Every structure is written in C-alpha cells, then in structure tokens.
Amino acid sequence: MSEWPAVALGDIFTIARGGSPRPIDAFITDDPKGVNWIMIGDAVEGSKYIATTKKRIRVEGISRSREVKPGDFLLTNSMSFGHPYILATSGCIHDGWLVLSPRNENVDQNYFYHLLGSPILYAQFERLAAGAVVKNLNSELVRGVRVPLPPLPEQRRIADILDKADAIRRKRKEAIALTEELLRSAFLEMFGDPVTNPKGWEVKALVELADIATGVTKGKKYGDKPMVTLPYMRVANVQDGHLVLDEVKTITVSEEDGRRYLLQVGDVLLTEGGDPDKLGRGTVWRGEVPNCIHQNHIFRVRPSDGVRSEFLSAIISSERGKRYFLRAAKQTTGIATINMTQLKAFPVLVPPRKFQAEFVLLQARIDAFRTRLTLGVKQFDQLFTSLVDGAFRGELTKIDGSGEPQLGRLDAEEPG
After folding, report:
1. Regarding predicted confidence, which is higher, 416 or 113?
2. Which of 230, 271, 390, 413 to pair with 278, CA 20 to 30 A apart?
C-alpha cells in the first residue's frame, strides 16, 4: 500500500448538498441574467466537465439554493454516485448533487477527478450509502471517507499518466462510434435517402415481404399439456442494432408454443414500444442462444426471399422507419407503442437483391471490425481500471518509451 497519508475528504474539501428553491417553477426563468441552474440532466455521460445548463433560476432563488463555482466537483448523491464532474461554470445546484469545493491550492483538479471516480472510492461510497431501495449519500458520510493524498507534484504526475491512458481509451471508443457512422453513410450512398427514395426503389408493405408474429405471453395457462422450459428474449434484450445477453431468462411453455415461437437465424426482432425515440428498435437474430423463443412485446419478422434480413433491419431502423412508427404509434405518458397492423403496413424500400447483398457483405466486414474494436476496448477498460487502482495504492511508476503506463512500486529503483 502507499505510504502517502490517508486524509478525510472533509479535510480537503468543503462538502455540502445542493438545494432547490420552492416552488421551483416560480424561480425558473429564460432571462439571460438568471443564474445557471445545474441539474443532473446537465451532466453528459462520458464528459469530464459541466459547462452549460438547460435552465436558469431567478437571482432571488440563490439564497434558497447552493452556489457553486468553476473548479468545484459535483457528485450525484444517489444511485449513480461515484462519477465526478468538474464545474466549468458558476451557478446553483439542484439538491440531487453533492458539491466538493477545494479548501486550499494543494489539490490537483485532474488527480481528484480520477480519484473520485475510481473503483476504490466507489466501493467506499457504495458501502456507506444509506437506503433500503435507493442508495443515497449525504455530505456527512462523504466527509469521513479517507483518501490517499500525495504531495502536489506527485498528484500532477499521476494525473498526467491517467489522463494519457484515458485519452487512449476515449479514442478507441470514438472509433467504435465511427464504424456505426460509416455504416449509415454507406447505406445512404448505396440506397439514397430512405425517406424521399430519390433512386425510385419499389415500395412494398412489410406484410408482403415477411411473416410477422408476436411472441409468448407470460402467465399463460396450459392445463395438462406437455411443458418445456426455454430461454426467451425480453424487451431488455433487444436494443437498437444489437442484443444484450448479460441476462437471459427462461420461461415454461407448452411444447406446442415452444415450437411455435422458436426463433430462427435471420429473424428480425423488433420491440413494440418504449420511449418514442426508440420505437421499432431491433436487430437480426443469429442464433446467439440455442432453442430460444420470444415474448409477446417483441415482434418476430421472418423475411421471405425478396429481402435480406440485414437490409430489412437497416431500413426499419432508418429515419424512414423512425418517422413512420412515430407517426403511427399510440402514445401515452411518454410511452409509445405500435401494433401488428401498423407494423405490417410499414412501407419498405425494395432494391434488387444484388444491391442488398452488397450492403450485407459490407455490413459484415464493418461488424467484424467493430467486434474487434469492442473487445479491445473492454480489455483496455480492464487495464485502465487496474491502472487507476494501482495509482492510488502508490504502485504507479511512469510511462515507458512505448507510451504505455507501468505499474510498480513508486520507490522502486528506475533503470539506468
């Protein structure tokens, strides 16, 4: 372990919870002279800083809130606590935040950004958080958390190493996003704008091109019929362009329903509802889970010979599909749903199969490349976590000639 002193966060920072003037609606304003009102929604995932806000409050609301300044750290006090943000603006904070204001100048901003977001501190926050259902932190709990405090030059050296490693990690993740943009661009280049159909492709209703079915209903009664227990796809498993298979649940159905709802390679899976911007999200089933069926909130679209599964999934998830489903969907309290009739009527562009085949081949190449990138990112995430952990245990030495961070005792003799 490090020989650095362990110091309570309360000795390094002034720590307090935000506050909300009540009634808040009375203080919300569009006046540019208003004060930045920093809410949880102003934090952008993956960002280090909070520089802009969506709302402002009237000046008279300041006394009922908590003022903050650039350079302060913000932590959410419930559920997602542990990810820090550095303020790049001044204003007042919502009561969902905890603010940590440095007490003196012996605090390197980047060092504490990495430390506050490290697995070491997250484990302590998680252990201390109170609440039977939703875990919450309060300022008193956070004040008592002890952290390693090296001298300021050492804080800066460690922060520099972790910043460089984090930059590598971010670039790899950006590369994955670029592959998705590449596929969208290739689709537009090959088939034109799917909304306006400038290339004049034939248009057919989806029902003419595919067999469409819903899935099994949970809790269905079967009487004395022979039963079988099978894995099944839920809405949570089907995302936009991919599957999430971290948790695949099972369901007991009749043998007849097991055969009826059995998924086949090439089926396109689509969710029937959810947030309006996620309507019709789905992906192609490639037999990832053997003997798998699907629930009734997922449509199974089984293409005929006239259309390729990958192309059909792409056109459904394109702007053409998003606009159609948003227009056709039933919407209540922020949730939108589509029914079988609406799905069957979806107007599909139908280019010749040879063009579809070219797209499928290109997609396969891009998917293979993205898979390799994703695996590399996961491995680098593990390395970065190990690196951060080692840094705050006093085991980080330097970056070698290859640019890779090295782990080792800080007091180890450096090579001559």
Report:
1. 113
2. 230
